[in-house]
Specification:
4 strands, elongated, alpha+beta, single chain
């Protein structure tokens, strides 16, 4: 009977320790991801050019889209006009427990921001992952005019 309670106690302590580690490291991840989003989003929307865009993305973008598709997307985004201002950068980081399945990307973040261009106001939505080797990078980027549904925008 004592052995059973000892096992229960050890498992409970391990779960509490795991939860505490996750809880206390999430704040740092939010700070890191927010700093990256606050740097990447304005840099991309100020200068919609493929080489500039690719500096902030990871291999996920290259696997999903061909160079021609990315170039078309950037050309379409250029139609929003000149960048005026960005506001309301909102989002957060979270741990994905897919690393238990062998996925190296166990930390991700999602952010959105309102951007005013000379021709239209738009919403930017990004998804990011944190690589243990390369830090934060964008895995998904969407820009669409305010009031337009996501289904009609570029991936």
């Amino acid at each position: 009977m004592k052995k059973k309670w000892l096992i229960v106690l050890v498992v409970t302590v391990l779960l509490i320790t795991f939860a505490a580690v996750v809880y206390f490291t999430t704040g740092k991840l939010d700070e890191e991801s927010r700093a990256y989003a606050n740097r990447a989003i304005p840099a991309i929307v100020r200068r919609f050019e493929l080489d500039n865009f690719l500096q902030f993305t990871n291999s996920d973008m290259h696997e999903k889209y061909s160079d021609a598709e990315l170039e078309t997307m950037i050309r379409d985004y250029q139609e929003f006009g000149n960048f005026i201002q960005i506001s309301n950068v909102l989002g957060s980081a979270h741990r994905d427990f897919t690393f238990l399945k062998g996925d190296a990307h166990n930390v991700s973040a999602e952010y959105q921001a309102m951007v005013e261009f000379s021709e239209a106001a738009a919403m930017v939505k990004i998804k990011m992952i944190k690589s243990p080797f390369f830090g934060w990078s964008i895995s998904e980027f969407t820009l669409y005019p305010v009031g337009m549904s996501l289904s009609a925008s570029h991936p």
